[in-house]
Amino acid sequence: MRDPEATKARIFEAAVAEFARHGIAGARIDRIAAAAKANKQLIYAYFGNKAELFSKVLGSCMVDLAAAVPVDPDDIDGWVDRLLDYHAAHPELLRLLFWEGIEYGSAELPDEAARQDHYARKVAAIEDGQSRGVLTDAIPAGDLLILLTALTNWMAVVPQMRRILAGTEDSDQDRLRASIKEAARRLVAR
Q1: Which of 26, 41, 50, 124 is the most buried (most CB within 10 A)?
Q2: Cβ atoms of residues 3 and 20 within 8 Å
Q3: CA angle 103-56-70, nearest 5°?
Q4: pLDDT digits (tens, 9 = 90+) for 125-157
Q5: pTM of whole model > 0.85?
Q6: 149 burial via Cβ count (<10 Å: 0-12, 13-18, 19+)
Q7: What is the DSSP track for 38-82?
Q8: Rounded CA separation 141/21 (Å)
Q9: Looking only at Cα atoms, what is the longest distance across the chain?
């Protein structure tokens, strides 16, 4: 008995792992199909070509992040903690974003309109905090969001640098987290 939704879910999970590991150009539909225990034709039928599948995978992962860790201008420390924890539990999202950057560079993305909407909501949260005086308005809201996410995400993106520069002990990781939160507080201070 076939279960199309279960098959789609297996394909999706296999695609997340494949794209995170190999990027868009290096990913192979046959490996996704094998990992999902599905045939290649189902992947194309459900998700389209490889670029469309990647776009759907990344878009879904970003929606999951936005729902799990909304930007909170009233609690930057808590937001940083939640973002660090999310990326520690889901390192594939940042890998997917980096692969996208390698593939597309500054060219327009296939789902650019949806992405602009996604980020507009996050920027609006920063603008709200700025208009209420809880965040600095010396830095434009979009720029501030870029700086905060870069500050928070970078240690998950380059774990080798985190290990070399900050150390490997739990106390080293705790200290680095505290440093990131302090830097974020200073960045948003009025």
Answers
A1: 50
A2: no
A3: 95
A4: 999 999 999 999 999 999 999 999 999 999 888
A5: yes
A6: middle
A7: --HHHHHHHH-SHHHHHHHHHHHHHHHHHHHS---TT-HHHHHHH
A8: 32
A9: 61
